[in-house]
Amino acid sequence: MQQDGKKRIWSDYQKEIADDHFFYVRSCIRQSFFPGSEQFFLHFMRDILGKDVYENPSHTTCTGIGYHGDVVPLATIMTVVARHFALMKESGYKNIAISCVTSFGIYTEIIETWKHFPEELEKTREYLYKATGREFDVPENMAHTSDIIYKFRNEIAEKAKYKLINKETGEPLNVVEHIGCHYSKMFPKYGVGGAEFPNVLGGMIDSWGGKVIDYPERRHCCGFGFRQYLVQANRGYSLSNTVKKFESMKPFKPDFVLTNCPGCNMFMDKWQYTMKEMEGTVYGENGESIPILTYEELAGLVLGINPWDLGLQFHMVQSEPLLKKIGIEYDPDNKFKTKDGRQMPVPQNLINA
Amino acid sequence: MPEKKHIAVIGAGAAGMEAAGQLARSGYLVTLLEKDGQTGGHVKDWYHLFPDRRDSKEVIEYLKKQAGHKNVTLRTGITVQRLEKNNGLFVIKTSGDGEIKSDAIIVATGFDLFRSERKEEYGYGIYDNIITSADLETLFRKNEIRRHNGEIPRKVGFIHCVGSRDEKVGNVYCSKLCCITAVKQAMEVKKHIPDARVFCFYMDMRMGGAMYEELYKESQEKYGINYIRGKLSEVSENIENKLVVKVEDTLAGRPLKMELDMLVLMAGMEMSKSGLDLARSSGLQTGENRFFAPADHHFGSNKSKTDGVFYAGACTAPMNITDTISHARAAAADVIDYFRNQES
Fold first, then answer.
1. Residue B297 sits in which domain range?
2. Structurally, how many domains does chain B consist of?
3. How close is the nearest chain B Cα to the Cα of A224, in Å?
């Protein structure tokens, strides 16, 4: 493996990422499944870096799941996205920070459509104005929030309490990085590092002391793929894609998987439970499954934030083996307690617990 | 008088050397300009040539003899920046504020090999055991066909059409030579490593030259080369450092995944950068394929749309050595005809 070859490709795919004053749009499913991730992002940007990040309470879903599930037409989703841009304009912001990879893909696809088909942009302006009386501008800068964490990865490294190093062996942790398809596979120029050898997550792993694994099915879909899962009859196909991916990465002994897409994280996490239940198969070492982390969760761990405040306990595959490898301190008794100390119900059948 | 006429030939590859030699032997004075330090273009880097597996050194010797004529002045390390025409005479502006005057010009700037790293999904320059057809020729010459770790490769794949017939990289044309080169190289691999298994992944086998089809047949019957119709989608590396290729086998109608020890990318041909620079600086027309556009595809394939400027060889389209030499001779004939018409 020649690292210089990758660096040459990365140099072709460097995008401009705004430095401050972000209009932040949340993800529908991330708030449910990884509730600590977005909270950490806001904390990191506002409280640690002192950046201006604004959320508008009128922001809604982008309807991306409906769009990819063929129940929301293109004209509708373009108008919904235009409404978000109108909220941004009304709030006085020009830089949009998007939490969800599906939304990022939707926004990117729509803006590209408007560039190539200006009549669609005009139609959308008309639809939005007729429906809401609002007007909008296309953002000056659009970044996925993983782009933003990538941009500030060295600041995180400088403030790091932990490195991605196995405490016992002193060796870098083996990390699988998995970008969502809609992050850069549709438009490689909008992803850090492009689509074939993306560096948005790899750059974080490198900066924080880990080692990126390149394995044969690295580019393969996580298994979600929208219609693969949303159409119930296709779910076996969804699962078989995930199995293929884990079979391929297993020989490289990954310590964890890092993702930037809510769908990827959810499916690679929860399908491991299914694979274990159906066939008794696990893909990590010592009979364990492989923790799947979001980039915000990983950044938070590196900075020494309490794993339970980051929401790691809400994954199906639990992270304690990883926390021990790194040497991260945690209190098992507080895992399912609220901030004011009340005990929450403890989920059954968690993996690695 | 013919001997007073002076022609500048830009590029001392096969076409330029042949054209220079032909004109010199007809009594004209020729200045042969080469941007690199030595003559011979791409041929000098090749090992054996199809279809008869002649050693390329023989061709280089022939070309050197042609260009070594006393009427040819060879100047290497010279980059042509711009062509100007005043009162029927050309002034060639070169690197280092140089100037060369001539009565006619033959542009023989040749081609560049497609940079295979542009097909990012193929992993050239990233995975250790992926090489190009040009790299393989160097290995043949050294008689060292080895993997990066020194092992002898036992399973070798050839990928056709790398940078050719590929809209994604902006090259819709066929480079013409890659299919037959792959056939020849696959056979060479078998000659060097008799127990190797060799696979060619192709879109179409375009065997359009003399003895090409025969060579293709021989490669299958005598050497057991496997031909699989399917375009490569991606390459990766497994834990054992084997290359994993994914291809759609379009004859079998199913996806195919295969482990290989070595992968050879059949890099296509593109208009050379020096040719493109010259076209831009001097107003020479290029076609949709970015090669120089001849004045007429049927009757003037050596002529540009500027009187007195002629083209020779692969600066007009992908071309093999045989065709390049013929094209260069035709360019020389056109130059002589141009002077004859001036006199009459």
1. 2-110+272-343
2. 2
3. 21
Calpha distance B262→B154 (Å, rounded):
8
Radius of gyration of chain B (CA): 22
Q: Which of B269, B300, B321 finishes a domain?
A: B269
Strand order in the sheet with B98-102: B80-86, B89-94, B98-102
What span, in angstroms and rounded, lies between the C-alpha atoms of A344 and A336?
5
Looking at beta carbons, which residues of chain B come within 8 Å of A8? 117, 125
Instruction: Tell me the C-alpha to C-alpha distance, in Å, between residue B304 and each of B82, B99, B307, B334.
Output: 15, 22, 7, 11
Task: For residue B238, list chain A residues with Cβ-Cβ distance below 8 A.
Answer: 215-216, 251
Q: What is the CATH number of domain A17-145?
A: 1.20.1050.140
Architecture (CATH level 2) of domain A159-334:
3-Layer(aba) Sandwich (3.40)
Chain B residues within 8 A of A252 when measuring between CB atoms: 239
Q: Is B124 on the interface with A (CB under 8 A)?
A: yes
pLDDT one digit per residue (tens) for chain B, 344 residues: 445 799 999 999 999 999 999 999 999 999 999 999 999 999 999 999 988 889 999 999 999 999 999 999 999 999 999 999 998 899 999 988 899 999 999 999 999 999 999 999 999 999 999 999 999 999 999 999 999 999 999 999 999 999 999 999 999 999 999 999 999 999 999 999 999 999 999 999 999 999 999 999 999 999 999 999 999 999 999 999 999 999 999 999 999 999 999 999 999 999 999 999 999 999 999 999 999 999 999 999 999 999 999 999 999 999 999 999 999 999 999 999 999 998 87
Q: What is the pTM of this model?
A: 0.92
Contact A251 B244 (CB under 8 A): no
Within this chain, do residues B180 and B292 fall inside the same structural domain, yes or no? no
Which A residues, 143 through 202, put their C-beta within 8 Å of a C-beta on chain B? 194-197
Pair (B261, B277) in one structural domain: no
